[in-house]
Design a protein that fits this description.
Elements lengths: L5 H36 L1 H14 L13 E2 L1 H4 L1 E8 L9 H18 L6 E7 L2 E9 L4 H9 L4 E6 L6 E7 L3 E8 L6 E7 L1 H13 L5 E5 L2 E4 L11 E4 L5 H15 L4 E9 L1 H54 L3 E2 L1 H30 L4 H33 L2 H33 L2 H5 L6
Parallel strand pairs: 1-13
Antiparallel strand pairs: 2-4, 2-12, 3-4, 5-6, 5-9, 7-8, 8-11, 9-10
Helix pairs in contact: 1-2, 1-8, 1-11, 4-7, 8-9, 8-11, 9-10, 9-11, 10-11
Length: 450
């Protein structure tokens, strides 16, 4: 017989109870997140279950939100074009703005052409200023090249007498000297200033004189980019367009005006056609390789780390489901290089689990029970996991900022994958093991955990 401190016993029981409740809530949250992410990845399962419940139970459950994966050229097929811009004669401080303007123009042109989710990027290579244009699924490449290569056309149109349409005028982009983003000194609201050359100033003065109170629309490539109302005659050739602009909107308008006023000649220097059949074949082979690699990782974890490895494998499955859902939501354009980044991040997710289990083994050798050993193992492994993933993320960000389009795909999936895998190792694996280990049953089979 012996005396025991009942207060300490009660406190210990309360603490254990709270810990169990906390673990259950976290695991429930992980399960809900897994179901939602899985439904986003493959909504057919949710929809079938919803239809069954609606038909048999009478509870109306809506279909799940649907969003397709965004596939790059090497998987979907299409055309990859590289243009070089000639910025000779354009002031140094206006070159970035001119490139942004021509990028925006090309993007709008290919959108009008009917291209689904085109990608237009600026890529500076030494002294060369290039534009990378990716057109997924494009069939009539010649027509697309023709539209992209045309000279930007800026024109001013006046309102008809009935106020329902606009008529072209003689005022075009060649008379516009510049357009600038400015801010009101009192209200700090952004606005755009225009300055015409001498000939343009005379035309603009006549137009504003006879259109007071009417709209004088500005068109770029046949589409209106601004439809301001003329408040007064403007004989000076200098005007401003004001309104409820955000800074981004005003900046974009200035860029578009300058694009029409200062056309940047672009020359096609590279073209690569990728057939849809080749893209489909690449996707099939990539998925097959990914599945084989994934199953090999799961087998390795279970053989070497037993029950802990089994739950780490479950965590890895959840990690893949979550990551694919993130790729859909962002959305991330999936390319062959992007899939490589995804597989590499999956390997690093396994590496994080191995670091935790190795630290946990060390703690078990020091005489700790399994749960304490796991808790300390996570704490001691975290600096290595953090530093390893953060350095990889840093390299990925550098590649994304300075790399070409194909490199960007690899870098983006690598960065996103590493962010998710830290959550997977520290939270999902840790709490899944604690959930199933907690209590007497876990203690009885503790020799199988590591």
């Amino acid at each position: 017989m012996a005396f025991i401190d009942r207060k300490q016993t009660v406190e210990k029981t309360t603490y254990v109870s709270k810990q169990k409740s906390k673990i259950r809530l976290i695991v429930l949250g992980i399960f809900i997140l897994f179901v939602l992410a899985g439904s986003l990845d493959y909504s057919v399962i949710w929809d079938k279950a919803a239809n069954w419940i609606s038909s048999n139970i009478g509870i109306n459950i809506p279909q799940f939100y649907k969003r397709s994966f965004k596939l790059g050229l090497d998987l979907q097929g299409g055309t990859h074009l590289v243009y070089e811009a000639n910025l000779t004669g354009i002031e140094e401080n206006e070159r970035d703005s001119s490139m942004e303007g021509i990028r925006d123009l090309i993007e709008r042109r290919v959108n009008l052409f009917g291209v689904a989710e085109p990608l237009v990027q600026i890529n500076k290579v030494g002294d060369s200023n290039r534009l990378i244009v990716e057109l997924p699924g494009v069939k009539d490449v010649a027509e697309a090249i023709k539209m992209i290569g045309g000279t930007p056309y800026l024109e001013f149109k006046e309102e008809n007498a009935d106020g329902t349409d606009f008529t072209s005028t003689s005022l075009t982009g060649r008379f516009l000297k510049s357009a600038q983003l400015e801010f009101d000194q009192t209200t700090y609201q952004p606005y755009v200033t225009l300055e015409f050359n001498d000939e343009g100033a005379k035309i603009f003065a006549d137009l504003t004189k006879k259109n007071i109170g009417k709209r004088l629309a500005i068109y770029l490539d046949g589409a209106p980019i601004s439809v301001p109302v003329v408040n007064e005659e403007i004989p000076s050739g200098k005007a401003q367009i004001s309104g409820s602009f955000t800074q981004k909107e005003a900046k974009q308008l200035a860029e578009r005006l300058n694009t029409g006023a200062l056309p940047v000649p672009i020359v096609l220097i590279g073209q690569q056609n990728i057939g849809a059949s080749l893209g489909h074949d690449s996707l099939t082979k990539s998925l097959k390789a990914g599945i084989i690699g994934f199953l090999a990782i799961l087998l390795f974890m279970i053989i070497f780390y037993r029950l802990s490895g089994f739950f780490a494998s479950i965590s890895l499955v959840i990690y893949v489901v979550l990551l694919l859902a993130v790729f859909k939501l962002v959305p991330v354009t999936m390319t062959l290089a992007g899939i490589a980044g995804f597989l590499l991040s999956m390997g690093m997710a396994v590496d994080a689990n191995i670091l935790i289990f190795s630290r946990t083994k060390e703690e078990l050798k020091n005489g700790r029970n399994y749960l304490d050993a796991l808790t300390n193992g996570v704490k001691k492994a975290w600096p290595s996991i953090r530093d390893g993933n953060f350095t990889t993320i840093l390299v990925g960000l550098i590649l994304f900022i300075f790399g070409t389009s194909f490199v960007k795909g690899f870098a983006l999936t690598l960065v996103v994958g590493n962010l998710v895998n830290m959550f997977s190792a520290i939270v999902i694996t840790n709490y899944l093991i604690k959930f199933f280990f907690f209590g007497e049953k876990g203690e009885k089979i503790k020799k199988f955990w590591l």
